[in-house]
Amino acid sequence: MISECSLRNYGGAFSTCRRIVALVMGMIFTLGVLQPALAADRVIVFAAASLKTALDAAGSAWQAATAGELAMSYAASSALAKQIEQGAPADVFFSADRDWMAYLDDRNLIKPGSGVELLGNELVLIAPLGSAAQTVIAKGFPLALLLGDGRLAMADVKAVPAGKYAKAALESLGVWASVETRIAQAENVRAALKLVAAGEAPLGIVYKTDAMAEPAVRIIGQFPPDSHPPIIYPVAVTVDSTNPDAADFVKFLQSGQAQAIFIEQGFTVLVPPATN
Hints:
By secondary structure, this protein is an alpha/beta fold. It is built from 12 helices and 11 strands.
């Protein structure tokens, strides 16, 4: 269109085309300026993979109530914390344990006074829906026998909260040594869940909320709460966030409306509902 206009120099056509070109170029420039601005208006949330089902629902409720916008990024808490440390533009960090929140706080990457320990969870042993496996989880329970020739799906036991909780529980119950060479480690708890749901692993250890969100698995046992550290989910605003909606979103997560969503998905709420 632009090249056509530049060749037409008769009557008023050239001046008309020139105005059209100017208008188009102006629109392109305006869109180029507005797109980053629109992206900047979104609250960028880095959240533990195990929160996806519940947080997607809570996020939709917040957007409907406020007309605000969210951009969600789900992964292992460890991976997200490292990304924030390296400068990733997150406004809110929602961790699956205290350790990775403390990791960022120790590096002055969390806005002081913005954090709250919001949710609790439980650890469960799962099997594919069609599995006949049964057990009672207690000291010395026959986990290796239940596995048969298969592997136990778990999140990374060195860095990912779900994997660390799971390893601690198995050690506490005296069965870690019997299965430690037979672990199928996944990058996050939802990846471990998928291994079991797809039948690629006969058993897995995930959060109760993950098992509830996946119809292709069933819970065959629940780990005693005293077999592992308390499962706590803290949420906070990052120190580099300049989006005023970030604090509003964190407050909404403490509201009765959001808490009802978390409870429905199997989480325990650790704080009383926030009021405006």
